Prior knowledge:
Blueprint: E1 4-6, E2 13-15, E3 21-23, E4 33-35, H1 38-62, E5 65-71, H2 72-75, E6 83-89, H3 93-106, E7 110-113, E8 126-132, E9 141-143, E10 146-148, H4 155-164, H5 171-175
Parallel strand pairs: 6-8, 7-8
Antiparallel strand pairs: 1-4, 2-3, 5-6, 9-10
Amino acid sequence: MPPLLFLGRSPGEGLGAAGKAEPYRSGQRLSRKRVDMSNSRQSEQSDFIERDEAIERIAVQLGVRAERGRRFAELTSLRVGGAVDWVISPETEEQAAGVVNELDQVGIAWRPLGSGSNVLADDGDHHYVILSVKDLKGEPAFDGHLVSVSAGYSLPRLCIDAAREEFQGPSAALCG
Length: 176
């Protein structure tokens, strides 16, 4: 692969003597600097391959669905957002905890996502794992004035369940 030619990092910007971005001044001659990116790109590709193999191994080991090629726009109610490297969808709290533990152990970045309401995602690429908790299966646990639910539990569903249990806790005001 031939070296890349950089004329600046953004319009109106050139590279200074130390390789740092400096604003372009009228009448200034733009310097041309050749940078060999072939080793850097190969290393980055190798890192992504290793990361992808680790994610596939974790998904198989824990029996969770793992998908590539999704976009944030498919996962959010606002229907905006760029490509996501991986979406992992556990069905139980135990699977979710296992995924988080394994990803943390191998140093892979992840972000939780519920049903995608009120999420405004950038149109750029997102190089981390989305841990989708919207499909977590679990029943609410009512205990006096407290209720516990899984992270992906639907608020309308919780309101219905609270009414059936004749729940009088703080969420009763939320559910009307």
